[in-house]
Amino acid sequence: MTAGTAPPAPPGLRDPGRGGGAAGLARRRYLLRLLVRRELRARYQGSLLGLGWSYVRPAVGFTVYFLAVGVFLRMNESIEDFAVFLFSGMVLINFFTDTLHAATRAVRGNAPLIRKIYLPRELFPVASALVSAVHFVPGLVILTCGAVISGWHPSPAALGAALLGFAIVAVLGMALGLLCSAYNVFYRDFEQVVDVLGIVFTWSVPMIYPWTLVRDTLPGWALELYLANPLAIAVSLFQRCFWSPGTAGDFEFPPGIVRDGLIALVLAGALLAVAARVFDRKQTRFAEEL
Amino acid sequence: MTTTEPPSSPHAAHSIVIEAATKRFTLRHARSIREISIRALRRRPLSDTFNAVDGVDLTVDTGSTVALLGLNGSGKSTLLKLISGVMTPDSGRVRVRGRVAGLIDVGAGLHPELTGRENVYLNGAILGMGKEEIERKFDAIVDFAETEAFLDTPVKFYSAGMFMRLGFSIAVHTEPDVFLIDEVMAVGDPLFRRKCRQKLMELRHGGLTMVIVAHDLPLLRDLCRRGIVLSEGRVVFDGPMEQAADLLLEQRRNRQLRTAGSRLAAQPTQPTTST
Questions:
Q1: Which residue of A14, A18, A115 is in closest CB contact with B86?
Q2: Angle at A221 between CA A217 and CA A224, to 5 degrees
Q3: Checking CA distances to A118, which of A26, A229, B114, B250 falls within 20 to 30 Å?
């Protein structure tokens, strides 16, 4: 479609309004890039701090948790380098909630366009997720600096763990984001649901406290359930990369997190495939519902 | 998605093929659980459906210009949305050949916060152009829109005329195979309207397939030889533009009489001084 103007052999008849999916995205990647750029500028449009907000929000969250849990509840004393421990989970969970929040609103937010011009509708949630990925970068930079200060030395195994953790969160966030953005067209409740779940995501992973507390409190089956959460696995993997190498190394991670991480990634990928199918079926009714 | 077909296909010379297309709309009266339960208790329907487009069969020859006519609510715009792919038919089939660009509500893709320059790129990409293609046509687009001086101003500061000129210019420069035009000529200054008209004439001679929805009958008479009149989602006339225009005028008169009649019936004592 992007190729030249010279009239080629007459194209065949096709169904308009079919042309989404991964192939559609690949064909419209230039538009995807422009949409990402537009949203990057629009997200903090008209605010004094601009992109600075993507630093302020995690900084405030971090400070609050660090003071309340690290200092007042003395998590500082039981976990070495608690600041790095906390922040390595936080950047990942922020990335996840941010992706889900933005993707869920993506289709509705582009209603005027969707009502008038046919585009592969996947473009909108995918662009939102990519914008969230861009906002994830400053947090990662700060995390790396903090880790280095507290004596971090990267190793291939550690970086592999971080990559796996990131992949789980990105794929899962995209899959749920696609589903929520499609259903949000029909039931606006999904925006609220996603926001309410944000607090659940924050506290249901070993980010503010170590997983060993859960192990020592809950019965075995509940621990299994807790550790089956792909987000919990991803957070542990990130801590394995950015926090554990800088410590004395006596912290015990949940057994088999790399294996569980790989399983979680495969399942998240399967969910993404299902979500893409569901989105594709639902999108035929977007224009009339919006 | 592109289906190859034998050259002997009955639709070899058609750019738009619509077969028994029906689009049903659902009007939901209740959205929340509270509203739904109240309506259910009172045994009132939760939703009504109606066919905005009802079993339409239509083919448009490649390179021809067709006018879609009809009163408000006759299904013209819905039909155009089916052709553009914005909506999909509930039954029947709609197929098109080549790139379809819609001039449906000019400036739909223009983003108010972005500058004119950025919008040329974004809107061009939305309408299906690639980066190189936009760069090649950039000057032509800006020239035609006459907005050079405001290229780096956010579009929200544009006057309505400038806004619509830019939108129109980007759309006509996408060089689509099928061009759908919905009510564009309603805005803009007379000078630019004439320019648009000229451009559309030019495109028509260039072999472009066009479907035009407008209330501007003189324009349609100039541009189209074939007119299709829709009423309540069905094709009631398909033939020479002149006759189609006459039929539309007659429909308009009938409706005016009907509304005037019902007004009289509602207020029998009121003297009929209204125009």
A1: A115
A2: 90
A3: B114
Model confidence pLDDT, tens digit, residues A198-210: 999 999 999 999 9
Q: Chain A residue with minimal CA distance to B52? A: A288
Looking at beta carbons, which residues of chain A come within 8 Å of B52?
none
Q: From the list A13, A15, A116, which residue is nearest B5 (CB)?
A: A13
Task: Give A1's strand partners.
Answer: none
Measured distance CA(B53)–CA(B56) in Å, rounded: 7
Cα separation, A249 vs B87, in Å, equals 58
Nearest to A16 among B83, B105, B109 (CB): B83
User: Which residues of chain A from 117 to 146 reach within 8 Å of chain B, CB to CB?
Assistant: 117-119
Contacts of A288 in chain B (CB under 8 A): 25-26, 87
State both tokens at B97: 């050949």
Residue among A1, A13, A35, A187 with most chain B CBs within 10 A, to mutate:
A13
Q: Do A287 and B86 touch (CB under 8 A)?
A: yes
Cβ distance of B94 and A117 shorter than 8 Å: no
Spell out the domain ranges in chain A: 21-40+49-289
Q: Which of B110, B112, B113 is nearest to B141 (CA)?
A: B110
Nearest to B205 by CA among B14, B12, B65: B65
Q: What is the ipTM of this complex?
A: 0.84
Residue B162 vs residues A252, A286, B118, B133: alpha-carbon distances, Å: 66, 30, 15, 23
| Helix (H), strand (E), coil (C) string for B88-143 | CCCEEEEEEECCEEEEECCCCCCCCCCEHHHHHHHHHHHCCCCHHHHHHHHHHHHH
Beta-carbon contacts of residue A290 (< 8 Å; ≥ 6 apart): A107, A108, A111, A114, A115, A185
pTM (2 d.p.): 0.88
The 10s digit of each residue's pLDDT in B140-185 is: 999 998 888 889 998 889 888 888 888 888 888 888 889 888 876 6
Which chain A residues are Cβ-neighbours of B93 within 8 angstroms? 15
